[in-house]
Amino acid sequence: MASEEMEQLVRREYTQGFVTDIESDTAPPGLNEDTIAFISKKKEEPQWMLDWRLEAFEQWKKMSEPDWSHLDYPPIDYQAISYFSAPKKPEDRPQSLDEVDPKLLETYEKLGIPLHERAALAGVAVDAVFDSVSVTTTFKDKLAEAGVIFCSISEAIREHPELVKQYLGTVVSRGDNFFAALNSAVFTDGSFVYVPEGVECPMELSTYFRINAANTGQFERTLIICDKQAQVSYLEGCTAPQRDENQLHAAVVELVALDDAYIKYSTVQNWYPGDEDGKGGIYNFVTKRGDCRGDRSKISWTQVETGSAITWKYPSCLLRGDDSVGEFYSVAVTNGRQQADTGTKMIHIGKNTKSTIVSKGIAAGKSDQAYRGLVKILPRAENARNFTQCDSLLIGDQCGAHTFPYQEISNSKSMVEHEATTSKIGEDQLFYCQSRGINEEDAVNMIVNGFCKDVFQELPMEFAVEAEALLSVTLEGSVG
Amino acid sequence: MLEIKDLHASIDGTEILKGINLTINPGEVHAIMGPNGAGKSTLSAVLAGNEGYEVTQGTITFEGEDLLEMAVEDRARAGLLMGFQYPVEIPGVKNVYLLKAALNAQREARGEGEIPAPEFMKLVREKLAYMKMDNSFLQRAVNEGFSGGEKKRNEILQMLVLQPKLALLDEIDSGLDIDAMKVVSQGVNSLRSEDRSILMVTHYQRLLNHIEPDVVHILMDGRVVKSGDKTLATEVEDRGYDWLTEGSVA
């Protein structure tokens, strides 16, 4: 067979060893076994990890990019991407804030980002001007005391191989989808969390501070495991718009909740959406899935999506354990020429499983967004319950919102409810607020924030406040 | 305070107001009455700045300023406040939040800083009590699930907090039972002062028993056909509107 021959040929090339100079910090563009070996080597990974990646790559090669989403973007040349690059050298980066897009700076100002963080977020070559080391240390001590493991995925592969081997790829398999397979082959960064049995994580885990989040990788891999009766709340992302040289982002997040465990995963995503024509914006193709593996376990996703040129993302729950609970609360805002196809999947496998979906989509400018949700109830899932509420708000007349709810019910003793609305932001609501002296922009913010309230109240407190500010900045100039 | 001269306005090309003249001095309470379709609601809408109506002729001067040149929010900030006949619901937005944003927007326009939270809460609680409204009103979403009476009380509550120079009340009596009518009119009466004016638009003379106007205008077919003191309202109640146009020159 031709394809087998091809594979052998590829294999052979690999056995010839690295063609890439391992002294170099950046892999040349292109994706083959050598690139993967290079990444694995850079990360000082054991052989089993490299093998795992290579198998993922084999699968990826046989797959094709999904085309079913309601998105429109030029074809991506996967061989033109560099899959490993060390941070840019200081001399290649902007030397001061004067060289940065003034609009971006204006946004930092409005979001109240501390001065010393702005430069770092904008990618300016500065030394870290504040002392994060001591804070991080205290943080780590406290977690260690509780027995919680919180480290980078690379560190986990080296230090906790048994846990990684046991769980990695068990929620999102390597062959799950095109982007997940790609990520499995080339992931370079991400977080690892393990909360031992009976432990309630003593603090909310975030990818440290905004400043650290600014350097997250292009192919992030996150794995969170909550053992029996354990609990954790994890915050991802930051409200500050982040720029990144890499246009394609394909992260994978896997959550595993054992008996009576509870994982709360909150995201605020604000990648650079591109300029007014959408140029230079990030493509964000993410696979996020939680596995309620144990009985009475619970996984809750809350997300506020405002950034990226293109978002493709469906945080999902596999409700395997009996009486397990899955939740999805989402606010997606698109403006300018942004596109988003997002939603969730709730797969009811166990008995008495419950899921709740609350999705709020706000489209302004010339943006376009779709909610895509699947509720699947398998034959064994007696008394399964789902409630879905899915509302869209349109601002202006050049944007679009679409809803694609899918339901596959194979158990007659289950109950599924779906409510959906699409409305234009009410002229009469705006007029009412304005006739009280509130200007149009503030009035829009007030109404939109009211529209999103059900989701915002699910966010951890400090995130909720930031999310409101973020919404107003994102929608700026969308009226009038 | 307010001077309307030869005001013509139309909606979708149909002329509704056909030359209104009206002057309101500080401290005066005026009532505008008239049959259905006379143009009462159009007049309120034009004063509040509703863009659905096109002013084709005439002027409106408010406190020496050209009102028609002012944006909706600027009218409110300058002290013209509209009490709506059908206040709109805004899901998820707490009443207290709207009140505070409105008050601060006005203070900002006057060059004052934001009101300190304790001072604001004290003010609002006092006014709530006056309107016989429960504190829980503040935490409810703006007008959402409010009964007709609650909505109207809420409109007057906003007036009491925002203290406009000219309060414009559009059919504030519609849908009120007698008890609610008492509370609402008590609220409006408490607004009466030497430097504040009130313009009420109403269908019924009943309201005027509770809020006594200084001047009553009868609006018919887009024009003020007769003005007089409060006895004019009683006369209309007894005789209807037709006698006002009989024999008059169109």
Automatic annotation (TrEMBL), chain A:
It holds the Pfam family SUFBD_core. It comes from the Bacteria. Residues 140-201 form the SUF system FeS cluster assembly SufBD N-terminal domain. Residues 209-451 form the SUF system FeS cluster assembly SufBD core domain. InterPro entries: Fe-S_cluster_assembly_SufBD, SUF_FeS_clus_asmbl_SufB, SUF_FeS_clus_asmbl_SufBD_core, SUF_FeS_clus_asmbl_SufBD_sf, SufBD_N. PANTHER family: FES CLUSTER ASSEMBLY PROTEIN SUF, UPF0051 PROTEIN ABCI8, CHLOROPLASTIC-RELATED. Belongs to the iron-sulfur cluster assembly SufBD family. NCBIfam families: PRK11814.1, sufB. This is Fe-S cluster assembly protein SufB. The gene is sufB.
TrEMBL record, chain B:
It holds the Pfam family ABC_tran. Keywords: ATP-binding, Nucleotide-binding. SUPFAM superfamilies: P-loop containing nucleoside triphosphate hydrolases. PROSITE patterns: ABC_TRANSPORTER_1, ABC_TRANSPORTER_2. Residues 2-246 form the ABC transporter domain. Belongs to the ABC transporter superfamily. Ycf16 family. NCBIfam families: sufC. This is Fe-S cluster assembly ATPase SufC.
